[in-house]
Each structure stands twice: as C-alpha cells, then as structure tokens.
Amino acid sequence: MPPPQLGVNLAMISKTAPAATITFDRAAMKWKIEFSKPMRNDTVKAALSLTGGRETESNPTEIDTAALNPENELAMVFEVFPKNGDLLPESTYNLTLAATAQSYAGVALDRTYTDTVTDNQYVLWTGSGPFNEVPAGKVWTIRFNCPVDTNTITAQNVTVYDQDFKKANITVTPGS
Hints:
It is a single chain. The protein contains 2 helices and 7 strands, in the order αββαβββββ. By secondary structure, the protein is mostly beta strands. A hairpin with a 6-residue loop joins strand 4 and strand 5. About 15% of the residues are buried. The mean pLDDT is about 80.
C-alpha cells in the first residue's frame, strides 16, 4: 500500500485570480510572461495577441508561444516572439494578454495585461552620406569576438533593411 498523499498544491486549486508579469528581453527580441499560478497552455495561447509594426489586414503580425516549464497542459512561464523572428525598426508593438487566460482551476486572470515595446535597436547609416545614399553594392565586414561556425552564418539569419525598412536581398560570404 502506498503512503498517503498529504501535500496539496494550493496554487493549483485556489480560486483566487492569477496575476501575470510581462517583461521584454531586448537582446533576445522576445517577451517573457510569468504567472502566479499554473496556467492552462491552450487558454494562454488563445489570450495572446501582438499588434503594431507594419501590420496590415493582409499582413498581420503573427506570434509563436512556448511554455518554458510545461507540466502536461500547464505552465507558469511562457515566451512570446514574432513568428518571422523580426521586429521592424522604429516600430511600436503591443503584446496583449487578455483576461480570458485561465489557471488549472479554471479561474481567469485578474485583468488584461499589455506591454508596449518600441524597436529602436537599429542604427541608421552614419557613413559618408545620408542613410539613403549607402551604395547598393556596399560590402560589409563583420568580425566576431569569439569562434563562430561559419556554416551557421547564412542569408537566412542575417537581415539588412533598405531605406523603407524592407528586407534587402543580400549575399553572405564567409571570410578568413
């Protein structure tokens, strides 16, 4: 006969409304959401939306969500990031977590949460002319401060924007 189970996870069965904290990691370009109690993954994903940037009806800003500490269908920490991996320069984004997200006990959040981020991490051209006068065939050299597997540096993971903040076509060539 197994020993009796005396421990009860009060956070799991509590009927008090859960709370959330949203932070933005600028280096990783993603949001982290921490909850005060275990939340149902499906309700958290359904309650999240990202607006802003160059979003249009035909080109919505889509997001991916990952539960960082999943236990079956529950988690207390989530990461949220744009599906295409990019935030556009000089754009403002609003991540909204609706109050419809529910804890394990079926209790909705105490309120709707919103986090606003302006992406201003891109540095405009400060060379010999204005931004829009960068020569089209300019060769850029990037030096890393630690060893890098050159096979991991590709045109798919290096992004260059033109003066209209549209992705420019580029060629990546490993040097020596």
